[in-house]
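New to this. Help decode the following:
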Amino acid sequence: MFRSILCAAALAVAPLAVMADGVPAPEGAKVYFINIADGDTVKSPVAVQFGLAGMGVAPAGTDKENTGHHHILIDRAPFGEGAEDAEYKNYGIPGDDNHRHFGGGQTEVMLGLDPGQHTLQLVLGDMNHIPHDPPVVSDQITITVE
């Protein structure tokens, strides 16, 4: 049910996203993981805290300069290397198992992951889930879930 609501919300803003043209990001803005790092071994559910410097966090749909909301990419190519990434500037970041949205302005999550290795990367999206210009992305990290 929750996933259906998220998908409906993403579809509702999709027409607006087509009109967006990559909201500018201030120079030096960065997003990062606060409490986990590349190579960490963790237990599920994994507490993940999102950090942001040089910008502010605002819920999706909020039109305020130098703000955005978090998205986490899970088990996929690093941002910019995925074939679909070029489409995000027109239609926004999708909402699915590999792309989680935090459009309420959340800055942390308890992430249920199966045992094994997983990659995680943060991407900041504008009011319409579109990456900023230039994109504000973290390094991709690999964690192992016991």
